[in-house]
Amino acid sequence: MKRICLFILSILTFSLSVFSQETTAEIQGLVSDKNASVLAGATITAIHQPTGTKYVTSSRKDGRFNLANLRVGGPYLVTCSFVGYKEDSKGDIFLIIGQTYKADFSLVSSTTVLQEVTVTTSRPDKVFNKSRTGSAEVINRQQIERLPTINRSINDFTRLTPTANSNATYGTSSFAGRPNSYNNLTVNGASFNNTFGLAAGLGGQTNSQPISIDALDQIQVNIAPYDVTLGGFTGAGINSVTKSGTNQFKATIYNYIKNPELTGLKVGNVKIAKQQFDFVNRGASVGGPIIKNKLFFFVSGEQERVSQPATSLVASRNGSSGVGISQAKAEDLDALATFLKTKYGYNPGAYENYTYDTYSDKLTFRLDYNISPKHTFNLNYYYLKSYRNVPPSNSGAPTGGRQPGVTAMPFFSSSYIINNNFNIVIGELNSRFNNKISNKLQVGVNQLRDFRSSPGGIFPMVDIMNGA
């Protein structure tokens, strides 16, 4: 008995941690006849037309029906049939993440001849709607493709939320006055939060996006939902779903660049010095059927390369001084470098005109399997390998610090590298057992690897004061 109780408790605890995000949508409605009498036992079928995925249920005694755990997107074709009545259908339905779409049917007897029919409808996603579960913003694929984005970051789209403070370039925005570390970011139900709390999200310490924007299909931002399945945040719950394969093969390829030649050099009549930097973002994706109407795949890969000067300062030569010139003497720095190479076989690297780099490689893979009209399964894999050069730490540094400045010129080897890597696997089984019971089972594994390394290898940190 004790083991059974512990098992039940573990299941309840597991559910609380897993179901704090949304990845699907729902269709619900009422089936009645022209006299407004409810029809129990009517068959409702929803077909996701791009993939042929079929969902089937029946209306209950009160005439109501629910089709839960539906994949987002569309278009959907929803049909309703009942013995003795003409079949009715609704098409061109697109579902957004977390949405409960209202689809009522009023069936007409197959023996009745209608002379005139008047159809009235109302917007199903109106703001004041009992199916809405709180303040939320949904960004669909069309918006993702059309809205301008400077850094190809999810942050460029979540800023559409009125309560967003989008000062953060990387990671996520802050919402409703809360720090961005209080957000909960998920992709297809997988947690993309930084477990160690060193950044708002995965890849944040290396200024890397954890997932390619090209791989995302929809983004939902919840601020104050009262749905019990949404939680784990006091800022915003940011749920997103990736693209998936369909019955048609589709592929994308892209290459984005930024460099000094593409930037302006004047603000009004004021000239601005040209800053040297390079930004390259390139990738590709492909999706399609493995077995038509049954098994689908989608894969996306992306690389990002950023290079920028570590400092614009140069060492003093022949007593030179002024703006952009450090007090550290080039002859002293050259002599020190020669001594380290000769005495210890250690190359400290350059002390000026060197760059700091940011590299990231990411991969997204999704597999969708239509097991039956009652069960669908998807498997997702995410990979990120990223690093970023950063200046030497000022922790315990003498007055003035160790970083490049008027009184300091560090060698490249004194910098260090932040590495953010992860492998994430998550599977989701959506089941509809009957017209009353449905279930979503998510099981995932996160492997996060954050560590520091040195470009010059292991060597003592030495501060030399005033050239002495």
Helix segment count?
4
Trace the largest sheet across and list its strands: 16-19-20-23-24-25-26
Multimeric organization: single chain
Which class of secondary structure composition applies to the elements? Answer: mainly beta
Task: Please describe the biggest sheet, giving its number of strands, its sense, and whether it closes into a barrel.
Answer: 7 strands, antiparallel
Strand content: 35-45%
The helix-strand sequence is HEEEEEEEEEHHEEEEEEEEEEEEEHEEEE
Low-confidence stretches: 9-20
How many domain units? 2
The percent range for helix content is: under 10%
| Strand count | 26
What is the overall shape?
elongated
Arithmetic mean of pLDDT: 85
What is the radius of gyration computed over CA atoms, rounded to a whole number of angstroms? 29 Å
- For the termini, the CA-CA separation is 75 Å
Q: Could you characterize the architecture of this molecule?
A:
With 468 residues, the chain is mostly beta strands. It folds into 2 domains: 17-107, Carboxypeptidase-like, regulatory domain (Immunoglobulin-like), CATH 2.60.40.1120; 136-453, no CATH class. The chain has 4 helices and 26 strands. β19 and β20 (295-309) form a beta hairpin. The N and C termini lie far apart (75 Å). 32% of the residues are buried.
